[in-house]
Write a structure and sequence with these properties.
about 10% strand; oxidoreductase; single chain; Nitroreductase; alpha+beta; binds flavin mononucleotide; 4-stranded antiparallel beta sheet
């Protein structure tokens, strides 16, 4: 078996966060293959802290409706604190990808109602037919969350290889108490994010842009 670096780079380059899905379900065998591959992600002490609840069919529809209703009510209470701020280059990158999205869907700068409408799409799961809710044992703390970050990337890439589009969503995890309740996830686990997934609506403008990446000179501090 040979996967060339170019093959791998092409897989990474093809993946993007999908913000409009077709309704067709992903076959259970394909989802199982994605999870089977994603679980190969490394974790500290091989704890494999990730667990996911995966919704399909009517369960996705019930969850979508309840999440939407919760989002109307508000009550932001994530299990792990959201970033306290984005400054400097992080603020710039955050703004750039936000503007790229708003530009793609025709929301003009300053159109707060339009940007809020687009943001609320998070709570419709962007129309995805499936949602995975990812949690980690509370006792593993930030390192459990770190391991789960690797799982998110592995899941997204395994899905991409199977022609399945994904979007990780911290926005969904902002309603952690509701999610604990709805899915019966104990308080001994931290809900980290959702991953909505399915087949991309490739004609939708929300899927028409690609984010940028910093050059290696901004990432690596070479020594020696
Ligand atoms: C942990 C995590 C949480 C994210 N949460 C959201 C979210 O709530 N809503 C959203 O639209 N995108 C979310 N994203 C997607 C990022 O905005 C996206 O990965 C980033 O802009 C890079 O774009 P790309 O995934 O298309 O390469 C999240 C990504 C990650 C890794």
């Amino acid at each position: 078996m040979t996967v060339t670096p170019a093959d791998l780079d092409a897989l990474f380059a093809a993946r993007h966060s999908c913000r409009a899905f077709r309704p067709d379900p992903v076959p259970r065998a394909v989802i199982e293959q994605i999870v089977a591959t994603a679980r190969r992600a490394p974790s500290w002490c091989n704890a494999q802290p990730w667990q996911i609840v995966v919704t399909s069919g009517e369960e996705t529809e019930r969850f979508r409706a309840a999440l939407w209703a919760q989002a109307q009510k508000g009550g932001h209470a994530p299990d792990i604190p959201f970033p306290s701020g984005y400054s400097g280059v992080y603020q710039q990158r955050r703004r750039t990808c936000g503007w790229q999205l708003y530009d793609a869907v025709g929301v003009e700068k300053g159109d707060r109602a339009g940007s809020a409408r687009q943001m609320m799409e998070n709570f419709r799961l962007f129309g995805a037919p499936h949602c995975a809710i990812l949690s980690s044992p509370a006792e593993l703390g930030p390192y459990g969350a770190m391991d789960c970050g690797g799982f998110v990337t592995a899941f997204a890439l395994a899905a991409q290889a199977a022609g399945v589009a994904t979007i990780p969503q911290a926005a969904v995890a902002s309603f952690a108490p509701f999610l604990h309740d709805w899915f019966g996830i104990g308080d001994d686990r931290l809900i980290l994010c959702a991953i909505s997934f399915g087949y991309a609506d490739t004609d939708h403008p929300a899927n028409a842009f690609r984010t940028e990446r910093a050059g290696l000179d901004e990432i690596v501090d070479w020594r020696g």
